[in-house]
Specification:
single chain, alpha/beta, three-stranded parallel sheet, 3 helices, globular
């Protein structure tokens, strides 16, 4: 099964309660980048749902430069 490397823009309540858990359960995604205006939220999401080498951003324009 092929997995996709993905980045998430917005790490608030809906993402943490719905989108990120579903992506992690699915098993087809490696969540390798997290972006939120509040860096602390992105860090928390990374620690709970991301890969060990996932990156954190506060500017989505930096995230979209990633090869995802």
């Amino acid at each position: 099964m092929k997995t996709l490397n993905v980045g998430v823009v917005g790490c608030g309540g809906i993402a943490k309660s719905k989108h990120l858990p579903a992506m992690k359960r699915n098993g087809k995604y490696n969540i390798v980048a997290f972006c939120d205006l509040v860096e602390e939220r992105a860090v928390e999401a990374k620690e709970e749902f991301g890969t060990s080498d996932a990156r954190v951003y506060t500017d989505y324009q930096e995230l979209i430069k990633e090869d995802l």
